[in-house]
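Methods — Computational structure assignment.
A single polypeptide chain was analysed. Its primary sequence is given first, followed by the predicted tertiary structure written as structure tokens.
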Amino acid sequence: MGTTATTAIDPIWPLCNVAKKFGIWVPVDAAYAGSACICPDFCNSIDGIEEVDSFCFNGRRWFFTNLLCCCLWIKDPSDLTKSLSTNPTYWRNKISDSKKAIDYKDWQITLSKKFNALKLWMVLRSYGIGNLRSFLRNHVKMAKIFEELVKMDNRLEIFVPGTFSIVCFRLKPSAVAKVKSYSNGTKAHQNGKLASEDFVNQVNNKLLDLINGSGNVYMTHTVVAGSFVLRCAIGSTLTEEKHVIMMWEMEQEKANSILGKPKIALS
């Protein structure tokens, strides 16, 4: 649910219907996008969630929590504890034996562990549900602003449908075809045909290097069906719309340096 590379979302309900026929465990990996489910308006992404066996998301990705904090919900905890519990005499006590308390040593492999849940608790107490929802909704809004700016430039394309706060885009092959050659000598054209996918990937990689080399903006990338794609991911508590505009202007500047096109004025 919300893959790291492109925020793709699998159809949970139909998959659960198939899995139940064969007794297959259904986990939902919502490492990045699971945080958005605290907003009712994003819960359509998890239609059928009541049928799954477990659901996890990573607090460090989009829930403003420091490293090493993964949140796990499991429909039947006994499935987990039967696999991981150990019960030697020196660990036994009346409270645990009576099942009045949850013994979290049985919920994972390691016995000596940090109190990672405290970090998440501090985030919840510091921001509150209202502020957290506001942050997430605003990040999605800013990603939509960047996506609309990308659509203004006919040299660029949105490579996969935008979801949540990540925008996947690249320079179009038709725009890259106008580049005569690459810095390593690779030619854009072969026998008059459109630029090869490899050349398009090289030019988009160059664009990413130039953007990140500025020291003011940092983007990441992914490869989808062999195509190199830039990823604009918005997820910091300090990011504002002015930063999105600055990021767009930086992208335009670096694209212009590669393609030699005039800069598009923002309205």
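Note: Residues 117-152 form the longest helix (36 residues).
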